[in-house]
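example protein:
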Amino acid sequence: MELGVFLPISGRAAVHVLAEAAQQAEALGFDAVWTADRLVIPWEISTPYPYSLDARFIVPPDRPFLEPLTCLAFLAGRTQRIRLGMSVLVLPYRHPLYWAKIATTLDHLSRGRFILGIGAGWMEEEFAALGVPFAERGRITDEQLEVVARLWQDERAQFAGRYYRFDNLAFYPKPLQQPRIPLWVGGEAPAAQRRAGKYGDAWFPYFVRTTPQELAAKFANVRRAAEAAGRDPAQVRLCCCLPIELTPAPVTREEDRLVGSPAQLVEALQAYQAVGVHHLALQFMVPHWPERRAQIEQFAREVLPALRQA
């Protein structure tokens, strides 16, 4: 099982520690680093945040939040081996001709190390600020995935849909990775599972709490959706983002949370490995970078070797 780690792209120290964080992850043996997507943060947010236990968004509005694709382009030149992942690009926020060009540029600059996680988004206030209809985000996302398939494959790309329309376009360079840049489809709802089955190379949800068995059961829906779309279900991998916390001493274990001592985390992560998870992107839930860096280093010393031997 591959393991990735989220980068510190928000916070007042982000600009200063971003390269160090990616280089540290590479040196420690992680397989990928991941950035999240946020363009603006409203001062008041009524939309429930689906990725925290209290449904409140975790980044204060006055905290800097870097643009993720720019960060990955920067890191393409500051790293050598580690894969560079987007978790996840909210497709309706950007025109597909624009983000597809950035994605292919990143793919070439990183020499084929880019993973493109995509999603439909969740924050209604951010959609309103960008002038994008929140209720239509799923349909917009699906149409963008149809658009990018044409751009990345066809010499003379054309498309006529509800939201996007163009004819006889040249779009170069095509992706360096073939047949395309890996598309990992985020989202946890049934619509997202169907989207992953129809369009994705992986299903890539973020769960605050889930057991390995629950995750595997939901992934069965993705495979059924792939089969219904005429695809081989084996072409779609199971990947996931999970919060994690390393504790100095053992705690009472909860099967649906990655919290505990190094030995407890080895056991918990092996359970995800056993149900067929291909990649886990880990978000260390420590607010300040020095303490988070220490947890990541301890994880690499005391947890990673045991998982590599499994």
Observations:
- The mean pLDDT is 97.
- The longest helix spans residues 137-153.
